[in-house]
Write a structure and sequence with these properties.
Elements: E1 11-12, E2 35-38, E3 42-46, H1 59-81, E4 89-94, H2 96-103, E5 113-115, E6 119-122, H3 129-145, H4 155-168, H5 177-188, H6 208-244, H7 247-255, H8 259-270
Helix pairs in contact: 1-3, 3-4, 4-6, 6-7
Length: 272
Amino acid sequence: MLGRKRPLPALALACVLALPTASAARERGADGVFGRRTSSHFELYEDVDIDHWSGRDGTRAFETAVLDVLEDAYDRVGNILDLRPRGRQRVVVYDPGDFDRRFARSFGFRAAGFFDGAIHVRGDVRVDARVARTLHHEYVHCALAASAPPGTLPAWVNEGLAEWFENLAVGKRRLSAGEVAFLGDAAQRGLLGPLGALAGPSFAHQDGATAAVSYVHAYAALDHLARRKGDRGLRDFVRTLLRTRDVEAALRRVYSLDTAALDAQLRAELRV
């Protein structure tokens, strides 16, 4: 994973890709069939290569597990950020080989998922920690996009929030010692640029090594903000940013900072 022992980074893109049609409950997929299943807030299509329908390791159990994770993400993001997209959100979970064949050329690195109006995830035959984290990550992009079209928020906020929530999903609320060391090493090698340089719409154009640093840098920035004023401060920051589309105004209002000052505080804290 980009030279680091953590889940593959996921990416929000504003591209248009082929999806299963809404009217088709079952379509051709990697194992011959796209299965369709719904929950309160999601419409799931999956083509993971599972040989049997029922049982603990069957397709039905897999689909239920995916939807349970997504509903958990919906509740967590809703409770912390007060973001709750209307209607059912479309989610497509692909067989790993099929995902790679379809989308590998869309990224400068090996992606685990992306959002383009629907959530796309590189799946597995079970919902392990990697799949669960990716589902949470991409749902954050989905929830943000419901209030601000993709590309209108700085990538460090969009990806930082997605990383923060995917870590929160597994009980992790701050950077690990390994992540701090990783940023320190990146700084020593001149790879840790200013946070403001991550203000573009996405990290899609970055190569693997650069993207790895960008994702952890963005996560560190959001983690720093979350620890300053807690979940309520994070909610107020996101609410202000979505209303004004001005990250500097949102930072000043909630944290009395601008992007440069935030980055300076973060680097001082991490000693990088």
